[in-house]
Write a sequence for this structure.
């Protein structure tokens, strides 16, 4: 069982990632304490940790505010993601162990047809699982920790990309190409495909950000 601080941290972070707590919204320890039935001290400790991860900002005599989302931040998130995932596929392709390849392939084992009409949430979760698994299989603990935060930041804006449903087949084909390139030990090809895939996702997100960003504050 986790500590009260960990419990508070998980609940507040989930609220931010799922947009229950909107960008720019003030978070007060007294209100959060009542909401989650957790003391104010662990709530404050959780907020301090979330500030270190960039999810909130502290304001003197005002409390904590949920960090806003902007185009600059989106660009930075995807730049970090492209760099870290390219390092992960490099490590995997230099030593393409069969057991690791199987873990990646098994993510898609239940998808018989890429054109199946799967719910959008399922489609997104498949993609998220693939990318998080790439990082996990690199066995770089620092990278795993960094990317856990990066992926959660990205999740806050994922739904802005209304073309995600239309690009599912394209994305899945890219994932399968990455696995194939890793399996073949094609390090350069795997890195190139990962970067192409990540930056295509970034461009798609940014395309819709300006016209849909106001929805973040409703």
């Amino acid at each position: 069982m986790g500590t009260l601080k960990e419990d508070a941290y998980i609940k507040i972070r989930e609220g931010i990632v799922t947009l229950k707590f909107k960008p720019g919204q003030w978070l007060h320890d007294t209100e959060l304490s009542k909401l989650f039935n957790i003391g104010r001290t662990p709530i404050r400790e959780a907020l301090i940790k979330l500030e270190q991860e960039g999810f909130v900002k502290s304001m003197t005599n005002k409390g904590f505010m949920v960090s806003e989302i902007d185009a600059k931040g989106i660009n930075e998130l995807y730049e970090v993601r492209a760099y870290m995932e390219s390092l992960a596929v490099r490590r995997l392709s230099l030593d393409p162990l069969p057991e690791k390849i199987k873990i990646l392939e098994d993510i898609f084992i239940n998808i018989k047809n890429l054109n199946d009409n799967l719910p959008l949430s399922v489609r997104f979760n498949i993609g998220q699982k693939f990318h998080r698994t790439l990082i996990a299989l690199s066995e770089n603990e620092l990278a795993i920790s960094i990317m856990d935060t990066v992926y959660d930041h990205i999740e806050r804006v994922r739904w802005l990309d209304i073309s995600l449903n239309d690009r599912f087949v394209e994305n899945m084909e890219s994932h399968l190409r990455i696995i194939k390139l890793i399996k073949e030990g094609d390090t350069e090809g795997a890195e190139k495909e990962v970067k192409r895939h990540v930056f295509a996702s970034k461009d798609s997100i940014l395309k819709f950000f300006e016209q849909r960003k106001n929805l973040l504050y409703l």
